[in-house]
Specification:
The chain is of the alpha+beta class. The protein has a single domain, classed as 2-Layer Sandwich (Beta-Lactamase). Strand 1 and strand 2 form a beta hairpin. The radius of gyration is 14 Å and the shape is globular. The termini are far apart. The N terminus is likely disordered.
Length: 163
Protein backbone atom coordinates (compact mmCIF):
# COMPACT_ATOMS: atom_id res chain seq x y z
CA UNK A 1 0.00 0.00 0.00
CA UNK A 2 2.09 2.82 -1.33
CA UNK A 3 1.37 6.50 -1.78
CA UNK A 4 0.09 7.31 -5.25
CA UNK A 5 2.38 9.52 -7.33
CA UNK A 6 -0.45 11.89 -8.35
CA UNK A 7 -1.69 12.82 -4.89
CA UNK A 8 0.11 14.79 -2.21
CA UNK A 9 -0.38 13.32 1.24
CA UNK A 10 -3.41 15.07 2.74
CA UNK A 11 -3.11 16.93 6.00
CA UNK A 12 -4.08 14.96 9.11
CA UNK A 13 -7.51 16.18 10.20
CA UNK A 14 -8.23 16.96 13.84
CA UNK A 15 -11.03 15.24 15.74
CA UNK A 16 -13.10 18.41 15.33
CA UNK A 17 -12.49 18.45 11.56
CA UNK A 18 -13.47 14.78 11.33
CA UNK A 19 -16.71 15.45 13.24
CA UNK A 20 -17.43 18.46 11.00
CA UNK A 21 -17.02 16.32 7.87
CA UNK A 22 -19.65 13.91 9.16
CA UNK A 23 -22.08 16.72 10.04
CA UNK A 24 -21.64 18.33 6.63
CA UNK A 25 -21.66 15.27 4.35
CA UNK A 26 -25.27 14.19 4.79
CA UNK A 27 -27.65 12.91 2.12
CA UNK A 28 -31.31 13.91 1.71
CA UNK A 29 -31.91 10.31 0.59
CA UNK A 30 -29.69 7.42 -0.46
CA UNK A 31 -31.03 5.24 -3.26
CA UNK A 32 -29.63 2.42 -5.37
CA UNK A 33 -28.98 4.99 -8.10
CA UNK A 34 -27.15 7.24 -5.63
CA UNK A 35 -24.91 4.31 -4.68
CA UNK A 36 -24.15 3.61 -8.35
CA UNK A 37 -23.42 7.27 -9.13
CA UNK A 38 -21.25 7.74 -6.02
CA UNK A 39 -19.38 4.51 -6.68
CA UNK A 40 -18.83 5.44 -10.31
CA UNK A 41 -17.57 8.88 -9.25
CA UNK A 42 -15.13 7.22 -6.85
CA UNK A 43 -13.91 4.88 -9.59
CA UNK A 44 -13.29 7.87 -11.86
CA UNK A 45 -11.45 9.82 -9.16
CA UNK A 46 -9.33 6.78 -8.28
CA UNK A 47 -8.47 6.19 -11.95
CA UNK A 48 -7.41 9.86 -12.33
CA UNK A 49 -4.95 9.25 -9.48
CA UNK A 50 -3.92 5.75 -10.66
CA UNK A 51 -4.97 4.60 -7.20
CA UNK A 52 -4.84 0.80 -6.72
CA UNK A 53 -8.01 0.62 -4.64
CA UNK A 54 -11.13 -1.41 -4.05
CA UNK A 55 -14.37 0.51 -3.45
CA UNK A 56 -17.46 -0.65 -1.60
CA UNK A 57 -20.83 0.91 -0.79
CA UNK A 58 -23.26 -0.74 1.62
CA UNK A 59 -26.74 0.27 2.77
CA UNK A 60 -28.74 -1.54 5.44
CA UNK A 61 -26.54 -4.63 5.26
CA UNK A 62 -26.66 -4.90 1.46
CA UNK A 63 -23.72 -4.31 -0.86
CA UNK A 64 -24.92 -1.85 -3.49
CA UNK A 65 -21.59 -1.19 -5.24
CA UNK A 66 -18.18 -2.83 -5.49
CA UNK A 67 -15.24 -2.21 -7.78
CA UNK A 68 -11.63 -3.36 -7.74
CA UNK A 69 -9.18 -1.28 -9.76
CA UNK A 70 -5.84 -2.39 -11.22
CA UNK A 71 -3.26 -2.87 -8.49
CA UNK A 72 -5.79 -3.71 -5.81
CA UNK A 73 -5.56 -7.12 -4.16
CA UNK A 74 -7.98 -9.52 -2.44
CA UNK A 75 -6.72 -8.30 0.94
CA UNK A 76 -8.33 -4.92 0.18
CA UNK A 77 -11.75 -6.57 0.44
CA UNK A 78 -10.86 -7.90 3.89
CA UNK A 79 -9.80 -4.39 4.96
CA UNK A 80 -13.06 -2.99 3.56
CA UNK A 81 -15.11 -5.42 5.64
CA UNK A 82 -13.14 -4.67 8.83
CA UNK A 83 -13.34 -0.88 8.37
CA UNK A 84 -17.05 -1.05 7.43
CA UNK A 85 -17.79 -2.96 10.65
CA UNK A 86 -16.26 -0.09 12.65
CA UNK A 87 -18.63 2.37 10.97
CA UNK A 88 -21.56 0.03 11.60
CA UNK A 89 -20.63 -0.34 15.28
CA UNK A 90 -19.69 3.27 16.12
CA UNK A 91 -21.75 5.23 13.57
CA UNK A 92 -18.80 7.44 12.60
CA UNK A 93 -15.89 7.27 10.15
CA UNK A 94 -13.39 4.50 10.77
CA UNK A 95 -10.55 7.05 10.71
CA UNK A 96 -12.29 9.10 13.42
CA UNK A 97 -12.61 6.05 15.68
CA UNK A 98 -8.89 5.33 15.36
CA UNK A 99 -8.07 9.01 15.92
CA UNK A 100 -10.09 9.04 19.15
CA UNK A 101 -7.99 6.20 20.54
CA UNK A 102 -4.74 7.82 19.37
CA UNK A 103 -5.79 11.09 21.07
CA UNK A 104 -6.04 9.14 24.34
CA UNK A 105 -2.50 7.81 23.88
CA UNK A 106 -3.51 4.29 22.94
CA UNK A 107 -4.65 2.36 19.89
CA UNK A 108 -7.93 0.82 18.84
CA UNK A 109 -6.29 -2.62 18.78
CA UNK A 110 -4.98 -2.24 22.37
CA UNK A 111 -8.03 -0.68 23.98
CA UNK A 112 -11.26 -1.43 22.10
CA UNK A 113 -11.55 -5.05 23.27
CA UNK A 114 -12.72 -5.91 19.74
CA UNK A 115 -11.17 -8.59 17.54
CA UNK A 116 -8.72 -6.91 15.11
CA UNK A 117 -9.44 -9.67 12.60
CA UNK A 118 -13.04 -8.41 12.53
CA UNK A 119 -12.67 -4.63 13.11
CA UNK A 120 -10.13 -2.09 11.82
CA UNK A 121 -10.27 1.55 12.89
CA UNK A 122 -8.18 2.65 9.91
CA UNK A 123 -9.17 5.41 7.52
CA UNK A 124 -11.29 4.72 4.49
CA UNK A 125 -14.83 3.94 5.62
CA UNK A 126 -17.27 6.81 6.01
CA UNK A 127 -20.88 6.68 7.20
CA UNK A 128 -23.70 7.24 4.74
CA UNK A 129 -25.98 9.46 6.79
CA UNK A 130 -29.46 10.43 5.65
CA UNK A 131 -31.02 13.64 6.97
CA UNK A 132 -33.68 12.87 9.57
CA UNK A 133 -32.82 9.15 9.56
CA UNK A 134 -29.18 8.73 10.65
CA UNK A 135 -26.49 6.34 9.48
CA UNK A 136 -27.86 3.89 6.91
CA UNK A 137 -24.65 2.52 5.43
CA UNK A 138 -21.06 3.20 4.49
CA UNK A 139 -18.77 4.03 1.61
CA UNK A 140 -15.34 2.45 1.89
CA UNK A 141 -12.04 2.59 0.01
CA UNK A 142 -9.00 0.38 0.63
CA UNK A 143 -5.60 0.28 -1.02
CA UNK A 144 -3.85 3.51 -0.04
CA UNK A 145 -2.40 4.68 3.28
CA UNK A 146 -5.32 5.24 5.64
CA UNK A 147 -5.29 9.04 5.51
CA UNK A 148 -5.43 8.89 1.69
CA UNK A 149 -8.25 6.33 1.72
CA UNK A 150 -10.20 8.66 4.03
CA UNK A 151 -9.40 11.77 1.97
CA UNK A 152 -10.51 10.08 -1.29
CA UNK A 153 -13.88 9.13 0.19
CA UNK A 154 -14.39 12.63 1.65
CA UNK A 155 -13.45 14.29 -1.66
CA UNK A 156 -15.93 12.08 -3.54
CA UNK A 157 -18.70 12.80 -1.04
CA UNK A 158 -18.01 16.54 -1.24
CA UNK A 159 -18.19 16.45 -5.03
CA UNK A 160 -21.28 14.23 -5.09
CA UNK A 161 -23.15 16.33 -2.53
CA UNK A 162 -21.90 19.64 -3.99
CA UNK A 163 -20.27 20.74 -0.74
Amino acid sequence: MTTTPHLPTPHTPTLDELAEQELRLVFRQFTYDDAWELGSLLVGMARERAAPVAIDIHRSGQQLFHAALPGSVPDNDAWIARKRRVVERYGVASYRVGARFRAKGTTFEESSRLDPDTYAAHGGSFPVTVEGVGVVGSVTVSGLPQIEDHALVVAALERFLGK
